[in-house]
């Protein structure tokens, strides 16, 4: 344990506790997968600066698997939404018996005010302009914002190796999203694939989608239309999905949790945006790009995004990342 570790200014008051031993941190993050992925950069920063910290993560059920390999994990508290916001009472009951060194609430609730905590960091709720990643980083006074990450096990990598073919570059496609306005028309993936495979003749498409019949129905036309498509959706854990994404040469998909997961896994990621705002939720990673449908931000129909525009952006990203 090194006394020379540089903590962010927001953590200076807890440095004495760190230098003397174990620190217990409660981290309340998002219900939606995409927002939860974006918050992983803060956790990675805490792990680097306070390597002996122990973490309790509170999140929604969709995002829970994201944290199962987190270093220093004590518990994942899954918050199932209840009437009258009673899920917050459930969380308080689960946490009130512990004395916390640091509580971080990215949901803007009052829960941590009623817990014993040496320091509290509460992010203001509501929407505001600018990248969500930047707003998260401001909570710890971090500039530049730490990039999202994923924590994978040997077993996750093994599943990815056995699920995906070893031959040919793999191009990941994410044709689903949590609402229809963000979904690029599925019939455009066939002409897009023809353009991609002309440039990379031996490439294989890998189709990613989430669990449940709705996601499966959205992905089915793309799976059926593309030759040699690999089905990588529906029943894998989030770390397994991330490990598969990490093996792909490129990811192309709608603004979704999968898009953010691909960027966090280090896959060159091209996000497709229509009525959602790239200025707030553009993919954040070492190798990312995005294209936006023509029209006013937040109102542009994603159907206005042409195959040619997407194919050209994909070709540029491939050239930049595999020169």
Helices and strands, with pairings:
Layout (H helix, E strand, L loop, with lengths): L14 H6 L3 E5 L4 H17 L4 E6 L13 E6 L7 H10 L6 E4 L14 E3 L9 H7 L15 H10 L6 E5 L14 H11 L4 E4 L5 H13 L4 E2 L6 H9 L3 E5 L2 H8 L4 E5 L4 H4 L6 E5 L14 H15 L2
Parallel strand pairs: 1-2, 1-4, 2-3, 4-5, 6-7, 6-9, 7-8, 9-10, 10-11
What is the string of helix and strand elements?
HEHEEHEEHHEHEHEHEHEHEH
Estimate the helix proportion, in percent: 25-40%
User: What is the rounded Rg?
Assistant: 20 Å
Proportion in β-strands:
15-25%
Distance between the termini: 41 Å
CATH superfamily descriptor of the largest domain: Glycogen Phosphorylase B
Low-confidence stretches: 1-20
How many domains, in number, for the residues?
A: 2
Q: What is the class of the largest domain in the CATH system?
A: Alpha Beta
- Average residue-wise pLDDT: 92
CATH architecture classification of the largest domain: 3-Layer(aba) Sandwich
Task: Give the tally of β-strands.
Answer: 11
Specify the biggest β-sheet.
6 strands, parallel
Lateral strand order in the biggest sheet: 8-7-6-9-10-11
So what's the oligomer here?
Answer: single chain
């Amino acid at each position: 344990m090194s006394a020379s570790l540089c903590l962010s200014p927001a953590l200076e008051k807890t440095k004495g506790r760190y230098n003397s031993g174990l620190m217990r941190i409660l981290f309340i993050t998002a219900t939606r997968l995409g927002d939860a992925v974006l918050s992983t950069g803060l956790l990675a920063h805490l792990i680097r600066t306070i390597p002996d910290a122990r973490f309790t993560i509170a999140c929604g059920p969709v995002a829970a698997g994201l944290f199962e390999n987190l270093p220093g994990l004590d518990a994942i508290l899954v918050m199932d939404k209840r009437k009258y916001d009673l899920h917050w009472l459930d969380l308080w009951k689960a946490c009130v018996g512990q004395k916390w060194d640091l509580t971080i609430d990215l949901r803007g609730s009052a829960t941590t005010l009623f817990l014993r905590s040496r320091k509290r960091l509460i992010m203001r709720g509501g929407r505001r302009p600018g990248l969500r990643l930047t707003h998260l980083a401001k909570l710890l006074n971090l500039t530049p914002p730490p990039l999202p990450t994923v924590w994978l096990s040997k077993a996750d990598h093994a599943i990815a190796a056995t699920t995906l073919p070893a031959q040919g570059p793999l191009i990941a496609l994410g044709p689903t999203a949590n609402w229809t306005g963000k979904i690029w028309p599925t019939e455009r993936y066939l002409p897009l694939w023809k353009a991609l495979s002309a440039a990379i003749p031996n490439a294989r498409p890998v189709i990613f989608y989430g669990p449940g019949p709705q996601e499966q129905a959205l992905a089915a036309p793309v799976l059926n239309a593309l030759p040699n498509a690999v089905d990588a959706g529906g029943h894998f854990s989030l770390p397994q999905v991330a490990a598969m994404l990490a093996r792909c040469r490129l990811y192309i998909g709608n603004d979704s949790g999968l898009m953010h997961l691909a960027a966090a896994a280090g896959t060159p990621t091209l996000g497709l945006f229509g009525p959602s705002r790239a200025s707030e939720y553009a993919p954040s990673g070492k190798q990312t790009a995005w294209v936006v449908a023509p029209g006013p931000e937040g109102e542009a129909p994603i159907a206005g995004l042409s195959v040619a525009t997407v194919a050209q952006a994909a070709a540029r990203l491939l050239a930049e990342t595999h020169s």
